[in-house]
Amino acid sequence: MTPRWRVWLLVGLALAVIAAVIYFPILRRRVQRAARLQQQSEEQARRELTLTIPANPGQPRVTTRLFWASGTEDGVLVPTTVELPLSDDPVLRAKQVLNTLLAGPVDVELRTLPPDAALLEFYLLPDGTGIADFSEALATSVPSGIQSEQLAVDSIARTLEANVSQVQRLKILIHGQETETLAGHLDLTGTFVVNTRATPTPAKPAQSPVTPATNAPAADKTAVEPGKLTPGNAPGKLAQPEHKP
Amino acid sequence: MVLDPAHGGTDPGARGTGGLRESDLVLEFSDSTRRALEAQGFRVRQTRQGNDDPSLDDRSAMANAQRGTVFVTLHVSSTGLTGTVRVYTMTDFPAETNTTGMLSWDRAQAPFLELSRKLGDLVQGQLALRFKGSPGAAHVAAVRQLRTTAAPAIAVEVSSVTVEDRAALERMAPGVADAIARGVAAFRPVYDASPAAGALP
Asked: If you count residue pairs, one on A and one on B, with CB atoms under 8 Å apart, how many are there?
């Protein structure tokens, strides 16, 4: 390499360093601005999701019953009556009442659902199954325990029962996915009875602080599970292994 | 008897502000209950002895493999009136058209609901005598652990990890253990008289 080429090479490198020194702060500012914009849009999306569905101002106000925890009795739900301009459409109506339920009562101690949980979507199937899709905060922020998880689900089911007659069963999804439990205890793999009048009367219902929301494991499961059991005439009798010839 | 101290391993369960963890506390309750049951003449197995976390199905499988067993899963809540204890049994199962004559794992508790509720009421009655403010009869709830258990099965939940002093919960352990042991002992003749008792091939 001749000395002249060496000079050009050094000049080129020096220019690249100068360009990098000038461009690096600009690049850093752009990355920071993009991150801020993304954060804002996520927050905006969350706010939009948690907002109560706007009702038609001309819509007449109807008496709405929302179920929150009792302030006097442990583990019990009590209805609170408010006047809301609810939609006639069952899906919009379900969104309105659930968003109001999520917004919580005046006394925050009586909340049954975490304040940061949001209803992402609500679907109503032709057979009367309502599918409520909540944000992950419902599972991560609800107090862990059988009592608290049951109160959370029952408050949703009872509020739907009182205000949206078309919903007969409730399926809860977390961020679009079926989860095994709400927060380690309550079974979310099945559906909960919402409209108790539309379901067969259980043989011997046990006592419950509120109308029990029957959990029904999905009936259409076809996957073969280990350890099949048979009730036979004597419940508890484990199935005899099949003897193949 | 199969005793199930809930949670464990990476799953601490309910956590109190004072650092109490449900997974630790239920081990203590389980030890006390095991001793009380053994004093009543029961053979007892635990689904976990230390800080491990068997799956929910593995815990049920331990009970399902035993003859004429009774399953009790122990919990400490993060809510509820401090110093009270509640018993839960599984909710009703929907009717299912079963053409195979086999009961699926997912519905293993279905044939035992009535027995579970008798057991639950007996244990809850004993707990109500010892812990003021506790209900007089068992509640129903869709407890995932109970659904796959093919035996009379109850969940016992103590309130709560929010206590400021861990000793307050530890003082409850002997009473909870004694109530469970007496409830199970009272249930024994009911279970023995049922077709389900000891009915493994």
From this structure: 184
